[in-house]
Amino acid sequence: MSFKEAVRQVSVPAPAKVNLHLSVLGRRSDNFHEIISVLAKLDLLDIVTVKREGRKNSLRCRCLSTHALDEVKNLAEVAIEAWREYTGIQDGLKVVIDKKIPLEAGLGGGSSDAVSSLIALNLMMENPLSHSQLLELSEKVGSDCPSFLYSVTNIAEGRGEIVRPVSSTLLGRLKGKNILLFKPPIGFSTHSVYSDLASKSQYSDHFLVRKSLDLWESGKMTTKEFLHNDMEKIVFSKHPYIPELFKILQEKHNLTSLLSGSGSCCFCIGDENVDWTRVSSDIRESWGEESFVRLSSLV
Predict the structure, then answer these.
(1) H or E stretch including 17?
(2) Is 17 a catalytic residue?
(3) Is 48 helix (H, G, I), strand (E, B) or coil?
(4) Which residue in 3, 147, 229, 292 is deepest, having the highest Cβ count within 10 Å?
(5) Which H/E stretch holds residue 57?
(6) Options 17, 41, 99, 183, the catalytic residue
(7) Strand 266-270's sheet: what is its strand order?
(8) Which of 233, 168, 156 is nearest to 196 (CA)?
(9) Per-residue confidence at 25, pLDDT binned at 50, 70, 90?
(10) In the predicted model, what is the mean pLDDT of residues 171-199?
(11) What confidence score (pLDDT) does residue 160 get?
(12) What percent of the chain has pLDDT over 70?
C-alpha cells in the first residue's frame, strides 16, 4: 500500500457529539460496558490536518489553542499508529488539530479527531481502505470511535462498535435543531465515572431501554421524552450544582437539560422561540463567566 504521490496534505472536519440517550446495561466479560446510546453530531468542529513530512516512521502532533495536548499521546496518534500497522505505510507524518471542542466534556472530541485522522489518511491513499476496514481500525482505538464514521445521528450498541444511522424520517426531525451546550470550568474523567457506576451496579434494564428506543424510532415517543443518561445519577451525586441549574432552566425557560456522555458538558434542545441570550446569561450567573456556553445545532 502507498500514498498518492501528488497528495501531501489533507484537512478533515471532526464534529462533536451529544448523547441524546445513554443507557448502560452492565459490565461485559472483557471489562467494557454494554451500552445502547444515540449519538447526534453537531456543527461544533475540530479541524484535523494530516501532512506528509519528516523522516520515515516519524509522527508529530500539534493541537492549536490546546497546547497541553502536545505533551501527551492523544487518540489521533493512537489511530495513526494502528493505521500504520494495518497498512504498512511508514511515511513521516504531522497532525495538526485546530481544537474547538472542549476537553473532558463528553462531546467525543478525542474520538472524533482520531477517526478524522483515519479519514484524512484514507483520502491520501492510492488504494483507500473500505468502510468495513476503517470500522475495524476505529474499534481498536476507542469505544466511541466507530460512531464517528457516520456523519449523522446514529445508534451505538455493544461497547459502542455496533453502529447504525437512525431513519431518514427521524434525521429530518432532528436536523437543524438548536442545541445549547454548557460546561462548568472543570472536566470529568470518563473512566472514573464508569468505575463509580460499576461499583454501584446501577444499570438499566435492557428490555425497557429497547422498548423506549423502538417507541422513539417509530415516532410514538418524542425526543424530549426519550432523553436519558445513566451517568447523571453518578455525576449529580458529586456535582449537585448541575441538577440545580437544570431545575432553574426548566422553571424559567421550560427547557429539559441533559448531561452528555460522562460530562462535564450538558445541553438543552429548543426551537426558534427560545431566548438563548437569556438562557446563556442564567447559566453564566450560576456557573461563572469562565463557563463554556455555545449555541450549536444538530446536523
Answers:
(1) strand 9-27
(2) yes
(3) strand
(4) 147
(5) none
(6) 17
(7) 257-259, 266-270, 178-183, 292-297
(8) 233
(9) very high
(10) 93
(11) 93
(12) 98
Burial (CB < 10 A; 0-12, 13-18, 19+), residue 275, is exposed
**Which amino acid is it at 267?**
F
Note the maximum CA span of the chain: 60
Phi then psi for residue 205, to 5 deg, are: -85, 125
Question: Active site includes 98?
Answer: no
Separation in Å, CA 5 to CA 9, 51, 297: 11, 13, 38
pTM of the model: 0.94
Among the options 41, 46, 99, 144, which is catalytic?
A: 144
Task: Please tell me the least confidently modeled range out of 166-170, 209-213, 226-230.
Answer: 166-170
Whether 264 and 236 have beta carbons less than 8 Å apart is answered as no
- CA separation for the pair 50, 62 (Å, rounded): 11
Matching residue, cell 463554556: 292
* Each residue's pLDDT tens digit, 66-109: 766 665 678 999 999 999 999 999 999 999 999 999 999 999 99
| pLDDT attached to residue 272 | 81
Q: Which three cell numbers stand for residue 159?
A: 461497547
Lookup: cell for 172: 429530518
